[in-house]
Design goal:
Strand content: 15-25%
Number of helices: 9
Order of helices and strands: EEEEHEHEHHHEEHEHEHH
CATH topology of the domain at 21-152 and 238-314: Rossmann fold
GO molecular function, one term: hydrolase activity
Family: Belongs to the AB hydrolase superfamily.
Shape: globular
Domain AB hydrolase-1: 45-149
CATH class of the domain at 21-152 and 238-314: Alpha Beta
Keywords: Hydrolase
Protein name: Putative serine hydrolase
Length: 315
């Protein structure tokens, strides 16, 4: 694992017997996409995708509970974790460029049919990819999400100007204005930001890939967030319910949708269920509700590991 040798915060914990994980980098035109490849490398993996502003560490508690024969490639999306940020001048469209990234990775490895597992944003990307390339996906597992965030068009239109200005503001943020914190203060900030969805100990798990020591030339002590600040602007990626349902109608692969209770506080839960119901019209959908926070795979992996294992073994 890529880690800082001068502190103990990024040390890889001891893994259960037989569990293997390897750090990889996948070349892309703007740099690289980082990943953690769990299990055997001689078989095509399940591709696992984290949520918005998280990283591949979101799967660190779940994957070791699966059979050691399970191969899983956990990605850091661009601008997240250990992956390269987009160059200055490029925008993050979250859901839309995530589909292009997955296609790029599939072509890099020359895979044909794939299976995807995603939490939140990652689940939305799995849904979008399955709808965009319906003949190239065997199955998707979506955790506490059904589709990209659905908003009424008026709200999306209203937020556009603010979003563009905010992106340009973050783009010109000088390096010496990036805030730095000591380790415990950094964890405090992350705990508060997740509003109970992620425990303090699991915030530390995420921050192994989500924070770094402040560069020496800045002459500041402490840590800074590694994620690209431009990722804070996600409004440009939303879609209407009609668009989400049109994508749902194109999905042909098997779908496992796990909704956590209380999970995410959805603005419109009926939109979530409308997408699930639309999927049921055209494909085999397993919808299961479990106890847990929105980050159930990180906070309570024991609540979903058997469901996921059974789904993977069924096919």
């Amino acid at each position: 694992m890529s880690q800082d040798k001068s502190n103990g915060h990024n040390i890889e914990p001891e893994l259960p017997a037989g569990v293997q994980v390897e750090e990889i980098e996948i070349p892309v035109p703007w740099g690289h996409v980082a990943g953690r490849w769990w299990g055997p490398r001689n078989k095509q993996p399940l591709i696992a995708i984290h949520g918005w502003q998280d990283n591949a560490g979101t799967w660190d508690n779940l994957i070791p509970l699966l059979p050691t024969s399970t191969s899983v490639l956990c990605l850091d999306l661009p601008g997240h974790g250990l992956s390269s940020h987009y160059p200055t001048g490029m925008l993050y469209y979250i859901f839309w460029d995530g589909v292009a990234l997955l296609r790029r990775i599939v072509k890099h490895f020359k895979w044909s049919k794939i299976s995807l597992m995603g939490h939140s944003l990652g689940g939305a990307l799995s849904f979008m990819y399955a709808a965009s390339f319906p003949d190239d996906v065997d199955s998707i597992i979506c955790i506490d999400i059904a589709s990209p965030a659905v908003r009424v068009p008026e709200n999306m239109v209203k937020a556009t100007g603010w979003s563009v200005d905010k992106i340009l503001e973050y783009e010109t943020l000088s390096e010496n204005k990036i805030p730095c914190y000591d380790y415990e203060e950094m964890i405090d900030i992350v705990v508060d930001a997740y509003k109970g969805s992620v425990s303090r100990e699991n915030c530390k798990v995420l921050m192994k890939r989500g924070m770094a020591l402040t560069p020496a030339h800045l002459k500041k002590n402490g840590y800074h967030f590694k994620r690209d600040p431009r990722l804070k602007v996600s409004v440009l990626a939303m879609m209407s319910l009609e668009t989400a349902l049109a994508y749902a109608a194109k999905v042909k692969c098997r779908v496992l949708n796990i909704r956590a209770i209380p999970g995410q506080n959805w603005e419109r839960l009926d939109y979530y269920m409308a997408v699930v119901d639309k999927l049921k019209e055209t494909t085999d959908v397993t919808y299961i509700e479990v106890e847990g926070t929105h980050h159930v795979q990180l906070n309570s992996p024991e609540n979903i590991v058997n469901i996921i294992e059974d789904f993977l073994e069924m096919y």
